[in-house]
Amino acid sequence: MAERRSDATRAAILVAARERFASDGYERATIRSIAADAAIDPSMVMRYYGNKEKLFAAAAEFDLQLPEASAIRAEEIGSVLARHFLRRWEGDDTLTALLRAAATNEAAADRMRDVFGAQLLPVVAAVCPDPADAPRRAGLVASQMLGLALCRFVLRLPPMVAMPAEEAAAWVGPTIQRYLTSPS
After folding, report:
1. Same domain, yes or no, for 77 and 27?
2. pTM for the whole structure
3. Which domain holds residue 81?
4. Do 35 and 77 reside in the same domain of the chain?
5. By the 8 A CB rule, do 25 and 1 touch?
6. 77-103 confidence digits (pLDDT tens)
7. Are residues 19 and 77 in the same domain?
8. 160: in domain
9. pLDDT digits (tens, 9 = 90+) for 143-172
10. Are 154 and 100 in contact, with CB atoms under 8 Å apart?
């Protein structure tokens, strides 16, 4: 029974942390505010997660849910990935919170690198002409998508916010395609 209560407490903390990090960003979110949101004592947050950085890393678990590269025609992979990334960013505030925090916090930057390295790199390696060049190409793809996300979801630049997702994907897709499939 205590184990179930422990699991429920952990889950409540993670839900509260994700919401708080998304709304306040890493720097302004506090253990106290997260605990209050979860209706628990702040010492419980510390007991389960140790510190704010470890809590953030746990709360920032994020599955990009990338499509299987073999299921996409090679000449369409750039536009498919651009549309997919935009849908993922629009559908989950966790990645926005992670991007915000990664700009100023090394633990968050490490988490962002982990997410993109573990999830994007295999897709890029599967489609690029030379798998040895996949890390460089994955970095270029990430630069496009993270730059777009920064402008659209964090800085909220009016032209980027106003642009329909399909239009943004149409602009970025060819660049991603070039990064993925063009000869070096």
Report:
1. no
2. 0.77
3. 69-181
4. no
5. no
6. 999 999 999 999 887 777 787 788 788
7. no
8. yes
9. 999 999 999 998 999 999 999 999 999 999
10. yes
